[in-house]
Specification:
heterotetramer, A mainly alpha (323), B mainly alpha (313), C alpha/beta (513), D alpha/beta (310), C: 513 residues, alpha/beta, 18 helices, 20 strands, D: 310 residues, six-stranded parallel beta sheet, three-stranded parallel beta sheet, 11 helices, 42% helix, binds adenosine-5'-triphosphate, binds magnesium ion
Amino acid sequence: MQTSVQNAVLILEKLRPSTATLRAFGLLVVLLCVLFVASGQVSGHQILDNMRQAAPLGIITLGQALILMMGRLDLSVGATAGLANVVLAMTFAGNMDNMAYALSITLGCGALVGVANGLLVVALRIPAFLATLATSLVLTGTTLVVTGGSPRGSIPAEFRVITEGWFLGVLPYSVILWLAAIAGLTLLVHFTMPGRRMLLAGANSRAARLNGIAAGRMIVISFVFSSLAATIGGILLSAITGMASIGIADAYTVDSIAAAVIGGAVFGGGVFLAAGVSIGALILFFVQSLLYVVSLPPATRFIVQGGIIVLALALANIRRKSD
Amino acid sequence: MLNGSIRFNLLLALPALILTILLVVFTASLSSSFLSSANLANLTNRVLPLGMVALGEAIVLMAGRIDLSVGTIMSLATAIMALTVSSIGWLAIPLAMLAGVGAGLFTAAGVILLRINPLVMSLATAAIVKGVTLLLLPKPGGQVSYDFYALLFEGESPLGVPLLIVILVYGAFILLAGWTRFGRSIYAAGSDPRAAFAHGVSSARVDLQVYALSGALAALAGVFLSIRILSGDPLIGDAYTLDAVSAAILGGIALKGGRGNLIGVLLAVISLVLINNTFNLLQLDTNLQAIAKGLIFVAALVFFMRGKAGDAD
Amino acid sequence: MTATLDNRSVPVLEASGISRAFGQNRVLRDVSFSIGRNEILALVGENGAGKSTLMNIISGGLPQDEGRLSLDGAEYAPASPLEAMRRGVAIAHQETAIIPDLTVAENIFFGREPRGPLGLIRQDALHSNCAELLDDLGFSVSPKRLGSDLSAAELQMVEIARAMSLEPRVLVLDEPTASLSSKAAETVIDLMQRLKARGTSIVFISHRLGEIMDAADRAIVLKDGALTLDAAAGEFSRDDLIQAMVGRKLSNIFPERPSSFEDTAPAIRLQDAGNAELPPVSLSVRKGEVLGVAGLEGQGQHELAAALSGARPFRSGTVEIDGKPTNISSVAKAIALGVASIPDDRKRDGLALTLPVRTNMSLFAIGRESAFGLLPLATEKRFTEEARDRFAIKAASLEQPVGELSGGNQQKVVFARWLAHTPKILVLAEPTKGVDIETKSEIYRLVSELTGKGVAVILISSDLLELIGLSDRIVTVYERRISAEIARADFSEEHIMRCATRHADEPAEVVHA
Amino acid sequence: ADDKYSIGYDIYFGGNSWSVQLAKEFEAEAERHADEVDVTYVESELKVDKQVSNIEDLVTQGVDAIITTPISPTALIPVLKKAQAKGIKVILLASKIASDDYDVLVTVDDVDFGKASAEWLADALDGKGKIIALNGIAGISVSDDRWAGAQEVFSEYPDIEIIATADASWDYAQAKVAVSNLLAANPEIDGVWSQGGAMTLGAIDAFEAAQRPLVPMTGEDNNGYLKRWAALKDSGFDSVGAAKPTWLGSESLLIALKLLNGEEVEKDIIFPVPTITAENLDEYVRDDLSDSFWTNTRLSDDQVKATFEN
Ligand SMILES: Nc1ncnc2c1ncn2[C@@H]1O[C@H](COP(=O)(O)OP(=O)(O)OP(=O)(O)O)[C@@H](O)[C@H]1O
Ligand SMILES: Nc1ncnc2c1ncn2[C@@H]1O[C@H](COP(=O)(O)OP(=O)(O)OP(=O)(O)O)[C@@H](O)[C@H]1O
Ligand SMILES: [Mg+2]
Ligand SMILES: [Mg+2]
């Protein structure tokens, strides 16, 4: 049929990487070259292995990017990932038999955080960044109170396959999960009606409501997605460390914003580039490796991170102006 | 005098006033030591750093911007103090403030020249300042001369130097905000930048001014803090960012700019300081303290942000 | 300053050969004109013709690329609005520049506040000075009210007062009446006459030709940045203005429509329908009929629109659509029932400004054709391209953010959204606010096309000519109640205004229109 | 209640299991002396300025003694001076200040801690071999002191070569990454000197992942580490568990009571470092208790279970 051909063309058109994504990709390649020169060894296997470790940040960044698309900011992703880490270890208690229970409780907690964020924003009309900041405070406080400062339990070694194992020895499982998240969210945002409604609700919720879209619900759902992404990131992180620690995921909040911005996310909202922001997460990760290789003090990591944010936004804004 | 928009803005300080009075009455009636001059002196000492950093944050918020780097600037100032007081003496204070202004100008430059969203730009500044601070002073330490401490915090009377500084600085800024053309331009830019522009107010200039002020005041807060702890600490200020934003919002400064009064901010700072003191003096469970603070923050958000914030923020 | 008739011919301000371009866009081409002493000069032109640009140049807001200005015969090249003001040229902007969180007085004297010791502003003196000024101008606005509390008309008054506080010799008013009801607009026109009597020369921009015919001493017309007409009052007609603006005759912008509805059944009927904000109303609209709703600002017409659109549903009474009782309980329900609404504030209520034209336009078209919740990409593409062509929407591409479009084009995007499936009932609120005459006539043609298909239209407008030209029947609202129903045969501006300013049972003599 | 002593206890941190257990030991001891003391707790969250405020408030309240774990060596000096001037007894628990404005310091010296584990490792290697060192956080006095003690010992063994050091923040994951890298770069590693049990766990996992035989490694007295050690013991793994015992918390109260009762007390009470070796490992390791629990304790099993549930 002609329409199906037409549709295929349109789908391909939509999948064409945006300039922001290509720019991020270029930056990544440059970075890898520098890393290669500095360390004298970069293999495909090594890159995949780094991707494996970058997967938690990558997936959390996807959630952040979704919220950015809605013209908002989620400052609770770090605390949410940390909560997932503590809850997962506690419910797993080192025993693989508890897997279903542990995963469902952890994901459930994550979803609840998202609902809470969404309701604060929609029902109480608190600006998102303050609402999520408040949530992150409450989460950090609650975690401390509940665990008394020393989280319990552990992640069984069998479960840690999801971050340490490789599918057929060629592709790490966590990278597969990450790619699936990219594909899923791309499908949702660019190819489905709910995604479209979400986009409109984020851009102007009042207009969306007056045009018959349940805008409040779409905003709450987007926060649930973001919190779930943070939770999955926290689960992967737990699988890497094998145990629970407090505050272990705090850096993800700023890192995820930085990665998203590097990958082409726009503050005004309306843009969602799953591939771009994932590359952004990789860039951040490789920058850290680079600092490690050239043995700069850990403090430089903050400076480089801040610098990259400014640079990425500056490039994007200058481009937009000259367009 | 208290005419026009000033009166509307004063009304916004009412909730902070009520909260402060409630806390004072409540604690004073249950603890005999609360009103002792030693305790009041302790309280003014604690108001000093938070008061300065919240003041800067409030001015930025009045202009419709936000500065999430103030906490790291405080840390930077403590580091500069700890590292340089021994060699250059009191000159360390202007040096630290200069660094604060520099950080503020950096944020402003990103906001104005590169048109980066103020929230993210100040987050980026925060990351960079934190990195620089950790390079200068990787761990808590250094030495701030006891002379400064003796000058500021020694003595058990609340009528000391800290109170004087708070009164002078807040007095000056209250006049500046309410009764000068400079203050008007801040309110105007925060209220509606386009309209303000038509009135000859350049929002770029206002941005530059408020971020520089906020950087300077945050650094001043860091200076006081380093004197209080007689050393530097590269992470000590981080927690103050949130307290500064909370104090400004609790004090009635509208997040979207254009509204609020600095008297409310001072009252909010006092009530935040009081909460901690109340819990300690009344020997209440310390876990509840964190929750109480969180609830007050959320309540402030609900009272002040509700309905005022636009759809997208 | 007293003016004599002789002074009229002496120009206060003269512009010759003014050109200005923004990048490739040549907005003004060799424009020359002059403003006489004690003259009300009307400046007319379509959207984007360059009117505001020209006035910005005169008032120091923009430099020209070419051409010269002179004031009282002397060279005049203001580098800033401030300098222009000092030379006696002030402007009240098209989009009023009132700071919402400052009071009227603080706004009017912004940057020129009386100051005492230490350079501190004297608030009391500021407000009393302002009270004097407002008194003098005959405005009854309190100087202590906040800008955010003012109505559209009051905002415009304060904007004018601000310009007047500079005691200018030339006052530029850029579309001062665009957002005002006829009644409020009259007050502004009245003020212009009073200022003129005091010796102020006024340049006045408006899209409402009626006002221009009434008030202007002279009119100039811009088309695509060039001057196409310059004539004194009495030397031009309404049609002349239109022809100069549009470049062709557009004598009747209102399409001919059949007006016999005796046999058709009502598409929608309200019986004592109301809610907390709206006392019970009863009305009905037949298929293919346009019911106009006239009224001063804030008489309940927007509450009616909100209830019909499902945003603030009716809570009492009955609503029948196609004879069947129903309940418009939500916007989604309204859409399902075939009730389409076009809001008066398109930026706030209608569009997602940061999103592309395509996304904004395809909202409803794709919803119906979506299978398994997937976006029907082909349908979207076909629909948006068709709609763009059909409505002649000017946009760089369908991917351009809709916020970058001009106001008229934004309005067309909102209209186009409904083209996907013809509604049964169309509720239009101020459909042509700030829209130029050519686009207006396109929108009117569209309405007529829809009524031809049997769509019932409820048209809420503050533009009386539009109501008269388009409606089959007009109801007037006053204090949230219907005060009269007027048949087409009885349409006249005077009669409608009379009905719109009194209760249904009030005797007509009491009213001074 | 007037005849009871009032004691202000500053919980300096509630964010890791050691600091939590330290406070619990104190609490348990205070319960045992419930008829003698009334305790006011304040919480400093590892924030220097908050700690200053908290101590100020304790002084205001007029407690009889203050027990605190100074976060900074300088920050508390003025307020502790004030406290002493008011006749309040000041007991420093597990951490020093840079002046003598206190009555008693009760702690275990971190230099001794480093020495104890270094000596064991030197013995285990017969005084020769290539080792790597895992430190906490450079600049934190605990980490610096322990490393200084260890270096002092190793300097006496010319045949022991420290081929690399890494700062792994007492963190399992960081230690694992660091050791993996070091293993890849060095074909021979004969021993691991580590300042923390979690880091040692990371090192063990890195060795196993690289399929390299385990070498002698030093560790701490936390139960999780001891369990792993016990499990590996039969396959030839050897280790030592040095301890900064949490019972210092309980000791601090006993000392405070002595002070308040007017007994003579030494100003600096520095306990020797308890060490766990393969011989007495079984006395310490508790399979039935949580990994998080620190085994040099005076807490009852029930109290441990209440603190660390599994
Ligand atoms: N910020 C902007 N960025 C890019 N293009 C713009 C921007 N603002 C306006 N334009 C372009 O300028 C053109 C005219 O804009 P303008 O706002 O002057 O419209 P207008 O002539 O006043 O029309 P209307 O009466 O319909 O509002 C539009 O076609 C738009 O594409
Ligand atoms: N600052 C600007 N930058 C770029 N283009 C501009 C700018 N201001 C105006 N324009 C362009 O100049 C043209 C004329 O705009 P202008 O505002 O003068 O129109 P106008 O006649 O006042 O229209 P309206 O009736 O809608 O007010 C517009 O099409 C717009 O594209
Ligand atoms: Mg326009
Ligand atoms: Mg215009």
